[in-house]
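Dear H.,

Thanks for agreeing to be a second pair of eyes. The structure we're designing against is below in token form, covering all 136 positions.
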């Protein structure tokens, strides 16, 4: 049974639905690829999924080890490549909250980024850069 479904709405726009929650996301082709750029593009979602997955795995680690990562802010930069058109690079910058993390906690949190399912699922040709900004 399907977990998600999608419907083409025309004009390069797709409505995606998560069946269990009935949550919807609209995607739009980017301006540089014949679209209006009025919503996430499919490749934007892919890059955002990497950051979201990374943060989810960090959150699981944090919950299991009583480490507070609430408030982490993430910036995502996607760089497209040509011939063929594809995601060439995704940079995920995590601005960690101003808390006293031990070196061991920092290492474990950074390790989480490289073990998330999206990171492990993307083709090796997609450069994935994770930057952690620790305030202390």
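And this is the sequence the design step returned. I haven't edited it by hand at all.
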């Amino acid at each position: 049974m399907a977990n998600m479904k999608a419907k083409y709405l025309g004009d390069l726009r797709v409505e995606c639905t998560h069946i269990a929650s009935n949550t919807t996301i609209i995607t739009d082709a980017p301006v540089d690829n014949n679209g209006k750029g009025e919503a996430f593009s499919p490749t934007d979602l892919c890059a955002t999924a990497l950051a979201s997955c990374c943060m989810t795995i960090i959150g699981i680690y944090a919950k299991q080890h009583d480490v507070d990562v609430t408030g982490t802010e993430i910036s995502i930069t996607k760089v497209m490549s040509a011939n063929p058109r594809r995601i060439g690079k995704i940079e995920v910058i995590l601005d960690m909250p101003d808390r006293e993390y031990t070196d061991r906690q920092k290492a474990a949190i950074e390790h989480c980024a490289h073990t998330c399912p999206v990171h492990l699922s993307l083709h090796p040709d997609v450069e994935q850069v994770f930057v952690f900004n620790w305030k202390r």
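Two observations from my side: The first strand starts at residue 4 and ends at 10. DSSP finds three helices and six strands in the chain.

Warmly,
E.
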